[in-house]
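If your schedule permits, I should be very grateful for your opinion on a structural question. Thank you for your consideration; the sequence and its tokens are set out here:

===
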Amino acid sequence: MNTAALRLSIKQWAPEDRPTERLQRLGAESLTDGELLAILIGSGTQQYSAVDIANHVLGKFNRNLNTLGKARFDEILDTEGVGTQTACKILAAVELGRRRQTATPELHPDMSTATRIYNYMLPKMQDLATEEFHILLMNQNYRLVKSVKISQGGITETSADIRVMMREAVLCNATILAACHNHPSGSLSPSRADDELTRAIKEACRLMRIHFLDHVIVTDGAYMSYREQGKL
């Protein structure tokens, strides 16, 4: 039996050795250049696995990603095991990497005060006819990581699941959380349900070791802050 017949496809590898599974388990930084390229290539041929083809490509360009980044389409295509689709995928990945270097970093606004939270949320909430409940998830420097709408309700109230809030915070590695909802009526007075929900969020954050910064009620033109009112 020849060598090609004995070669295992990636699907026949032990799951823990497959590049895609290793990336999910250990992170992309743990993979070799060849393994990352193999994931882009996707599937191999009858003769070569995706990892084999990736190594053919790297070998042709001195195993140097900078050199590969300067390669022409026809040069990549002229590699053992590489077809048109594979060459296109490689060039597309190279171009994405090039564009990332010139992209403007995403802004993470400072959400350290109720005023900043209000100014950020007002355009989203000022014209709403029903109540919405949002959380703002931040890093340790009070920079916004993610804004999440938790629920949407009626004219006078909305419900919010504490478990969903905590899950979102954990998934974002957030260390600070602020809550925010609107009152379409224009009233700045919190309801009993608002107070109870605020206490529940505060307790959940305490258990999860997340700093509960504030609960801000938004109306068109003004806000009410639990922290500023001394209610946290």
